[in-house]
Design goal:
This protein has 227 residues and is α/β, with parallel strands linked by helices. It has ten helices and eight strands. The strands form two sheets. The chain has a six-stranded parallel beta sheet, with helices on one face. Strands 7-8 form a two-stranded parallel sheet. Helix 8 links the parallel strand 5 and strand 6. It is globular and about 55 Å long.
């Protein structure tokens, strides 16, 4: 464990890191953990919601804020992403649209963010000679039956195949898949908790035969750092 922790420190020490979708549940947890175990040069939080960025700033003590940069932008906007990723060593790509039912009703919006946005990250990483890109995926991309799962499956293929076109660049692309992050924003556990408070006798599940795989936010953070 001590050796692993020391390796993590070295991996991120004095590095510039860009996190797309950095104001989400994962971004907040990942940045907190990173600042705890290492001393990165700077962490760029790239997201499109200014209020979430404002809220995030309140969660970190002033001595930690000096290494954070808040950059408004969308992964759909290639030019903006290219500016944000200049002189960056590592990209953690966490930006995505994730609600399954919303995807079925708004398929093109999910395609633009989850697929075209992924390609923008790839293009910018190669152009700016990024050292490593880690894309966060989902178990729903394995044998997908929903549009959301299909967009993440396609995104995964794009990132893996990007290793074939880097040429002389140093960029390495990889993908991480894990299950449902327990108690993250939009997950089923907060819904169940609210229903229990209302004294509901039965909790709604999709199908009693279905298996769901859960991982804690802390476990997901450490898993990404390890990868």
């Amino acid at each position: 464990k001590n050796n692993n922790k020391e390796n993590f420190k070295k991996s991120f020490r004095n590095k510039s890191i860009l996190i797309t979708g950095g104001t989400g549940s994962f971004g907040n947890a990942f940045i907190s953990y990173l600042l705890k175990i290492s001393s990165p040069k700077k962490i760029i939080i790239y997201s499109r919601d200014e209020f979430k960025q404002f809220q995030m700033k309140q969660n970190f003590p002033k001595n930690k804020l000096k290494s954070l940069r808040f950059f408004l932008g969308d992964v759909r906007e290639k030019e903006r992403l290219e500016i944000a990723s200049k002189n960056v060593d590592i990209i953690i790509h966490a930006a995505a649209l994730k609600q399954i039912n919303t995807a079925e009703y708004n398929p093109w919006e999910f395609i633009k963010t989850n697929i075209m946005g992924a390609q923008n990250v790839i293009d910018c990483a190669i152009k700016n000679n990024i050292e490593r890109v880690v894309a966060l995926s989902t178990d729903k991309a394995a044998d997908p039956i929903s549009l959301y799962g299909a967009t993440k499956f396609t995104s995964d293929k794009l990132f893996v195949a990007a290793n074939n076109i880097t040429g002389k660049n140093r960029t390495i692309f990889s993908v991480i898949r894990y299950g449902n992050v327990a108690s993250s924003r939009g997950s089923v556990i907060p819904l169940f908790k609210s229903l229990i408070k209302e004294d509901i006798k039965y909790l709604p599940i999709t199908d009693k035969r279905m298996t769901r795989f859960f991982i804690s936010l802390d476990e997901s953070t450490k898993f990404v750092v390890k990868c």
